[in-house]
Predict the 3D structure of the following.
Amino acid sequence: MILQVEIIILNIHLFSKNYRMSKKRSPEQKKQKDTVNLELVFEPGKREKGIIISAITVISFFLAYYYLRNALSINGYFGFPLDDPWIHLTFARNLVQYHSFSYFKNEMATAGSTSPIYTFILAAGFIFYNNEMILSYALGILFFVFSGIAFYKLTSFEFGKENYYAILFTAVFVIDKWMNFISVTGMETTMYIFMLISTAYFYKKRQAVPFAVFLGLILWGRPDSVAFMAALAADYFLAYKFSKGSADIKLFTKKDFIKIGIIAGSIAIIYLGFNLILSGSLLPNTYSAKLAYYSPEFRSRVSFLKYEVWDYFTRGAYGLIIIGFFISAAKMIFDLFKKKYNGNLLYVLFPLLLVFVYWYKLPYAHRFGRYLMPAIPFIILLSGLGFRDLCKLAGNYMQSGKITQVLMIGISSVIILYSFFNYKDNAQNYAEQCVYIHDRHVVTANWIKENTKPEDIIATHDVGAIGFYCNRKIVDAAGLMNPELISKINDDNYASIMSDFMKKNNVNYLAFQREWFRVVNQNPLYTSINKEPIEGLDVYKFEPGKTHIISRETNSLIMTAQDMMAQRAYQQAIQYLLQAVKTDPQSSFTYLILAFAYGAMKDGPNYERNLLKALEIFPDYKDALFQYANYCRQTGRNEDSKKYLERVIKTDPENKRALDMLKTFSDTTKTK
């Protein structure tokens, strides 16, 4: 609402100013049509800049805060929509308490933070304040505010005298649904975006020292900053090449280059040395682990481009924003063909290189497109520049500066309003995702804390909330905290390798999502699933030699079969499940799903045969026991049904389904 009022005030001011200017022109000036001034000049003074920056600060804060307030009012508690924030928090807390960059007390020193500088900032915060949620929210929103101010400065530079347009597209950035969403997730993203925008600003201004500082720091922010560095190098190369024919292109001096080399180089060397000392590699464990797990061999690059890139940047208001981006990109290409330097190369190249890096090395944008979010501010900026050029083209054709201004303000206003609707919708998404993570990760962590001993060791692949809240030593099956596992993650026998590793490290309990690592032939001690069986966390007692984790291949076949069953393609599902049986004939779970597939096809004999096979492998399989009890009841074998229900209750005394069904037998007997 504040933004809409600002837009209306801005429009009134613009047109009243244009009207006054038109009154001052002489008749001779009004008749001149050969040269039309298409610029909408507004160069704010010191006082006006202060008002603008204050407005950005206040609006950014309250837009982000609304997401928190809305989620709190719906959920009744603070949460994060990702598990990863607690990784930073665990490192930060241990750094303060044990003076070690470790994941458990001072025993697991490792380069497990993708953004060590963000972890250090969190650690500094922990010295003064120990509420992890408020501390994370405060930092995320603070850096979002800083990003908004930095974005305004950068757009002011690019739009030059036309500062009204800089204000309008800063509003687009500030109201962006993903910028607000990520600012309250506890992640480093808004800090990293602030660093990127600041680096671009000081680079464009050719201010060597602050540019060098931020250039070095972005590597500490995220390792994928190499894409931004490559875009900077390409842009400067072209600027240098075209500067010989244009005195307007400003370059760094030799002294500037020396300063940049010393400052940025020193910061980068410290970063590389930090990782090398902790983990024996130049980059954080998270980088190597995710490259291994989300290998292109196991993920489709085509699907990545279609769903995680194209759909992401063309949905909602982005569908309009991307048009301006493409206009700017087209103009840049045209200028290059004309051998003319175009300063937009950096803004075009960075998003493309960022997408390319992930497409080639890690075709995965993570939840909510988090890995690609740093490209958003530059796409928005370039969109504004593209629409401005398009509107000036139209104004020049119509010989009217007013046409240019009306079109530009109209387009930007539509984008702002559309973005506002997207922002409102995403607030609900934020609240729902906080519940999703809380119910699976936080609640599971608290269960582990309350039901295990302090000296117990927990193996898991989602180490965030579990590592922070349960206060137990963690063995990381995904390799983020145990880099020795990274090189083996894609091994066909990784389940066996991981089991041996857990045995050597005296693991007592497992906490796995079924979609990642599935334990079979053993009932979980606890499961987070209550409402829907998507990415539920199960906790098992780890018994060396007995606990059976199926291979990734077997699990993948089972999940594909489940997808087929959801589409009612039962025959295809059976084929996948039969393949899964061949890869692992000792998985009781596979036979249970086979029974479901045959049951859906009304094939009673095969339904029963596969249930009995599942129970042959795992006699205490409560799900299979209940299903067979129900089948016996449906086929009139009530005594057999009671027998199997009693076995369910013996295994799980509080099993409501089994108790209710057994009660119906008692009620029937009393009636008779």
Summary: Residues 1-9, 11-16, 27-33 have pLDDT under 50 and may be disordered.
